[in-house]
User: What shape does this take?
Amino acid sequence: MAVGRYHRQEIFYPIGPEGQKKLQQARVCIIGIGALGASVANMLAQAGVGYLRLIDRDIVELTNLQRQALFTEADVEQQLPKAEAARAHIAQMNSEIEIEAKIVDVNPYNIEKLITDVDIVVDGLDNLETRYLLNEACDKNGIRYVYGGVVGSGGMVMNVLPGEGPCLECLLGPLPEEGSYDTCDTVGVISPITNIVASYEAAETMKLLLDSESVCRQAISMDAWDSYTEFFDVDKDPECPVCGKHQYTRLEHRQKSYTASLCGHDAYQVTPEDDGSFDYEAVVQALKGEGEVKKNKFFTTFKNDEADFKLFPDGRAIINEVPSGDEAQKIFAKYIDC
Assistant: This one.
């Protein structure tokens, strides 16, 4: 008798054939396809999760290869968006599942559209601001969320289960001021911890999809260099503005544009309000009279003596080699939003 693709998983008693069918019918969204998200996507695809939505705003770069195991030097050379590169690699590994790549920035305008038709959202993000936004969107829509974060050699994982337990803000407290906490830009990150955290995230996602009694109800903290793993309780705070009072200030705070520094880059991303008025082709045509323009099916690069940026069809731009968000906004206003 022929042994099927998922045979070893189906004979694992907590899953079994019926559990495998549930996985194949499940829908998962992974936001951030870097070190964490790409590894989680790979593991869930191997496990046979039937639909994966991969969301990322960024391009594969050489510095990613130190810890983002799904990508290759060819992806760097081709300047492929991470979501698309991950989709292509995973599709070669498992052609039986559906994989959707979304090359977008997650913001208050689009986050609910991106997550409300899936069973679970998995965190592969590299910045706290978007995590806090995701926490609000998941609480508002009752969507389970698997949080994972890494920096240096340490990491943390927690299942955020709306209506049942604490949320991300209960765990981490109010969003700290930018620059007051460690990031991969300031203290680095090593690949062993990203793989450990991603493995926990993938396992918890599978357990949640199967309604397993083994779903972890605690937060997990670990360090790959100092060799420890700790499980600890997080109390649901009745005064929490998100899961206690259901106040969604980040979700409801919509600006004309958003500027964010990119972890691991000397660059800032500017994301304009998506009001349907942006004419990508017209802007690209206008840029041709201002400097060197190269266009592919995913984005357009522009460079002259003053500016160096990538422009995407949704209107956002990654502005390279600028010292601040204000400078990025000035370049955006001059060349794109004009």
The mean pLDDT is 92. Residues 7-232 form a domain with the Rossmann fold fold (CATH 3.40.50.720). The longest helix spans residues 191-209.
